[in-house]
Amino acid sequence: MPDDPFIDRLVATAQTDPDVVGLVLAGSSAQVERRDEWSDHDFLLITEDGTPERYRTDLSWLPDPAGIALWFRETPHGLKVLYRSGLLVEFAVFDRGEFAGCALNHYAVAVDKAGIAEAAAGIQGRSLAPSPVDRLAEFRNFLCLVYIATGRARRGERLSANAFTRFYATEHLLRLLRDLLPADRRGQLDKLDVWRRFETAEPRIAAGIDAALARPAEEAARALLDLAEADLPALWPEFPVDEARVVRGLLGW
Predict the structure, then answer these.
(1) What is the separation of C-alpha 75 from the centre of its chain, rounded to a whole number of angstroms?
(2) What is the phi/psi pair of residue 163, to 5°?
(3) What is the SS3 assignment for 149?
(4) Between β-strands 41-47 and 68-73, what pairing exists: parallel, antiparallel or unpaired?
(5) Are 140 and 159 in contact (CB under 8 A)?
(6) Run of H or E including 21
(7) 213: which DSSP letter?
(8) What distance in Å separates the CA atoms of residue 189 and residue 197, rounded to the nearest whole number?
(9) Where are the alpha helices (DSSP H) in 128-216?
């Protein structure tokens, strides 16, 4: 378990609170070797039936509640808390039934009073079970989003064009690229977040995507298509060359 003053106090509270049945650390709170000055703390608190809402609305149980600068409810179960020290905390509170329906990647069970470790192992197994990627559908979606983004940029809808280029199109390209990587490099990626740690697994292509996204929306969209046409065929022999050319032609590229 990590040696961290915040986590130490959180664990002590969870161990002594009779309504808390488990505490599961997630992300870099569980993988301390990944922590740096920008890391937040992520955890899941599991409490007795009928009690979670109290922990979501009254934060006096958190370490140093007087040091909280701001907080808000992000989802029905989850909150973000920013301390004046700069520490960001993201957590969710579940009862046991709600916990069974969540997703887990890397985790560490810090407090277990009711079979939480066994439940967490099952949740992680379900969460990380491989799901097939339809490569052709991902690439076609990428092409259509590049086309939409460019049209909106030319129409003057720059904010929408930026969203379509920098998020929607890029996300489908990343999903395809991640599936095409050799298994040993895919193991370095975050299993639940398509954006995380691609730079570690494929630094050259990641740098190319980053450089593309630094450009104005249409230039970025074109640069992403350039990158796809340059790098995907070596990884994907079935790369649909003609479909990429159709979009390039329609956009006058």
Answers:
(1) 15
(2) -65, -45
(3) helix
(4) unpaired
(5) no
(6) strand 20-26
(7) H
(8) 5
(9) 135-155, 158-163, 170-180, 183-186, 198-201, 203-213
Structure tokens at 98: 């709600």
pLDDT truncated to tens, each residue of the chain (253 aa)?
447 899 999 999 999 999 999 999 988 887 777 777 878 899 999 999 999 999 999 999 999 999 999 999 999 999 999 999 999 999 999 999 999 988 888 899 999 998 999 999 999 888 777 778 899 999 999 999 999 999 999 999 999 999 999 999 999 999 999 889 887 777 677 776 777 888 888 899 999 999 999 999 999 999 999 999 999 999 999 999 999 999 999 999 9
Q: What is the pTM of this model?
A: 0.72
What type of residue is 14? A
Indicate the DSSP class of residue 107. E
Write down the residue that tokens 């149980």 correspond to. Answer: 61
- Cα–Cα distance between 64 and 155 in angstroms, integer? 51
β pairing state of 88-94 and 41-47? parallel
The DSSP code for 58 is -
Q: Taking Cα atoms as reference points, which of 118, 111, 117, 119 lies closest to residue 18?
A: 111
